[in-house]
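Q: I have three molecules that I believe assemble together. Could you output structure tokens for the complex as a whole instead of separate predictions?
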Amino acid sequence: MIQLLGWGDQGWGDELVRAAGMTLAVALCAFLLGLVVGSGGAAAKLSRFRALQAAADAYTTVLRGIPELLVIYLLFFGGSGALMYVARIFGHTGYIEINAFATGAVAIGIVNGAYSTEVIRGAVLAVHPGQIEAAKAYGMSRSVMFRRIVAPQVLRYALPSLGNVWQLALKETALISVTGLVEIMRQATVGAGSTKQPFTFYAAACVLYLILTTVSGLGFARAERWAARGVRRA
Amino acid sequence: MDPRFMWETLGKLVEGVPLLFQLVTVSLAIGFVLAVLVALARLSPLAPLSRAAAGYVFFFRGTPLLVQVFLIYYGLSQFPEIRASFLWPFLRQPYWCAILAFTLNTAAYGSEIIRGGIQSVPWGQIEAGRAAGMSGWLLMRRITLPIALRQALPAYGNEMILMVKATSLASIITLMEVTGIAHKIISETYRAVEVFVVAGSIYLLINFLLTRAVKQVEWWLSPHLRDAPGAAVKEEAALVH
Amino acid sequence: MQQRLIAVVAGLALAATAGAAEAKDWKKVKIATEGAYEPWNFTNAQGKLEGFEVDLANDLCKRMKVECEIVAQDWDGIIPSLTAGKYDVIIAGMSITAKRKEVIDFSVPYAQTPAMLAVLKSSPLAKIPTDKNYDLDKNKAEAEKQVEKLKAALKGKVIGAQVSTTHANFLEAYFKGIVDIRTYKTTEQHDLDLTAGRIDGAYASIGYWKPLLAKPAGKDLVTVGPTFTGGPFGAGVGAGIRKADADLKKMFDGAITAAAKDGTVKKLSMKWFKFDITPEQ
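A: Yes, here they are, computed for all three components at once.
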């Protein structure tokens, strides 16, 4: 077992650790994309425009209602086609390639975005109206009010749930192994198949995931404490 | 997109729905019982019990379900000792491996939801129970758990939806539920996008109905939170005061 | 205004044709393989693709004077991804069958390996005697008699095959309702279940079983019964190419024929399979 998971040409250890780096990179891109999409989604849900609200509702309902695996498959097989279709309208006829990394990051990103939308929306609604009123009474402009009053509180309210959304992104990366991207899950499957030692490899994968989720969990806990530094505790 | 092909596909994919339901209901039912036990263990004053429960939750929430499925299905079968044991008649079958993985997974998430519910039970309620002479299991059964479960229901509803989606992973260990059949149709027609769109719609519909059902149960379980007839008027009156 | 519009349209049309012409100029070819079908193609402990087909593809590319990139793609999506344009060629132990030909085109075959059943040595099925090859096209009646014999022997058993393969199609066509057919994402996965005893047997090509059985990982397995070719198994293993790329197909046809003629295919075959899988000309 030690030999199998060792470093170098015969061992799979270095490959697995490199794959963990890939997992982290995809998860990070997906999470950030999800935050951008989620902020937009939350803004749409909280806007006065019915059409925007309906669109955002449809987005969160659909993306949270179908299995992530299917979203990834759809984007993988249909993504280039859809993009080329749009591009053809603008006169571009060549093949547009979306690589496995981008497919994975975008697929998990838009799924994550649906969860982020709800989290950010909830956090915005949690800001006490009295706070806004007070800011207005002080004569703050909208941008100053957003920067000084709304944003810091939204961040504080949203962080714990965003931590969960990040963990989801991290774990969903396991599904993009179907696109051929060499992340932890794919590397473990390749190793398991080639050596016929599945337990060893999937257990190693578990350890790597646990390290990633635990370390990033600690990071989020720190960020939460930082964001809540002005809050009095009973 | 070819509507006739998609209609035929729908007919074939629907055949996978009963298996999907079985996987979801069996895993959720056993998972719920296990979740309550784990939550109680987690809150228990006995340190080893509490620590074991925490470790279990840590493992199953910290790793992807896909790895858990593989670890149980392909991983355990690597050992001749397990293949010779009394567990093998179960672990031999992909169906029970899927149930085992889904149950252990949902119980870990569920226990955290229930633990949150138990901790959110207002202290006054428990005090009132004590004042009425209840304690221990009786207090748990009559006061704490009913309130905790009511509190936990919305979050548990989300967990159920996650479980419906998770069953799509059963296809990778040879089970022929909706996604498994989708793969088979694609292997015969090579039309991936259309098949996955239809499959996705099936999951979406199931989850939509499930969400409705959970909302309905929430409504039934909270008569005390509903406005009594004329409540709005009273509220306004209170505001005027 | 109108003139300007015409100019824009003309420009776009020009750009479009230029793009199309560029795509047809095969300087770079992207080839997909599965990377989980040892020794045809597999991923080694350094994470690199290796195997008979990787060597063959490199040789073919040298002959065609094109630059090649070989990528790994999961088997169950390998044809949809080709038609979606993710790569240009499939070289992944894929048999040339009528059904696949409805969707994509194939080069001339570069390998021919019959299908065979593998079971656990300890299984009662291990007693099925090995037999010669039967072709389901050329010698249909006799081959189907063999299938009937197998049906009796395998009744009620669980038999595995990789999804979307000729082996899975063969089981569907002849054994549906008689055996419990299980399909797997990779051949490696049905091996794991076969050695674990979850399934009673698995169908794959002899070019897959022979090398595996010679390794420690395959020490518990044995191949039994007759081998089959033709019918659902198609006409040998070829390179899958989009129907629109007739020029690319011509290039591969030429290179494969040359590689078979000068003995390169045989040489690589002996290196990886220890027997010759060059198709009959």
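A: One point stands out. Residues 8-23 of chain C have pLDDT under 50 and may be disordered.
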